[in-house]
Amino acid sequence: MISLVIPVYNEESLVDLLFERTIASLSTITEDFEIICVDDGSSDNTLSKLLSCYKKDKRFKVLVLSRNFGHQAAYTAGLTYAKGEYVAMMDGDLQDPPEVIKSMYEKLLNEDYDIVYGKRITRKEGIAKKTLIKIFHWLFKNFSNIDKADNVGNFSMMNNRALQALLSIGEKNRYLPGLRFFVGYNQGFVEYDRLERDSGEAKMSFNKLVKLAFDAIFSFSDLPIKFCLFTGVIGIIIFFSAGVYVLLDKFFGSALYGWSSTVLSIYFLGSVQLVFLGIIGEYVHRIYKEVQNRPLFIVREFVN
Ligand code: UDP
Ligand code: MG
């Protein structure tokens, strides 16, 4: 059996097409499948549309969260309920073509992989978003010790042992593509073109995307803490040189210590300290979240 997990949040305009295309493309693999649509606290007609799809085909199940928890939590919720031997993850906006799942499945079977993820060759998104995403992927690839993580997102399929490993990770600030690499086993990829979303606006707001990027960078790399160290070392070198100059001036020159240099160094030291405090604060915040140990999601009901 194959499970397909899809998070949806206020996507009423594309539920019907999503239903048709996922059913059609999974049917080309097997008739024994389930689609778990996770309604991530939608406030429009998404839920009622999902439920009428369920009435048409009982394999189209609906997992309703009690509020909007964000798409990483929604994916995790869906994965927790998935019963399939092979489980796929796909966004609900049809930017990732469901037809690619078949090639993922064939690759899993024929080439003995545990996880097959989609690698985007091209993407059709606004220039600003595309540039930011490029910068993020460059940072993540170069500083996360995951060199394969290049233009890879949630779109993927895995077998049950990889899924169980993924679900055993209790991390709260989740970046699933990173955690999926962390799981290990045999991982392969298929290439595909990321399309424009079929309809509606992107539901990952700018703030949500920034949070996701932060989760990825802070959870998978020591870049921020290295940045502290780097800035600190540069600062020390600058102030050591300045100190030498000040002493030489005191003993051999006409030492008249200027107001501007004093103020400038206070400003500089102050800002360096603020940067450090901010970064340390970020870690403390994350430790706090882990210690709180709140559930990642709360299910209202599972219609199946
Ligand atoms: N999504 C969700 N909860 C959210 C935000 C988004 O379940 O809080 C869903 C959304 O409906 C879509 C998928 O996650 O199916 C990806 O969202 P979006 O297309 O906005 O992300 P992007 O394409 O910008 O990565
Ligand atoms: Mg999208």
TrEMBL record:
**Presence of keyword Cell cycle:** no
Q: Which UniProt keywords apply?
A: Glycosyltransferase, Membrane, Transferase, Transmembrane, Transmembrane helix
UniProt main location, coarse: membrane
Q: What class of enzyme is it?
A: transferase
Query: How does this protein sit in the membrane?
Result: Multi-pass membrane protein
InterPro entries associated with the record: Glyco_trans_2-like, Glycosyltransferase_2, Nucleotide-diphossugar_trans
Q: Which GO terms describe its molecular function?
A: glycosyltransferase activity
Q: What is this protein called?
A: Glycosyltransferase family 2 protein
Specify the species.
Answer: Rhodocytophaga aerolata
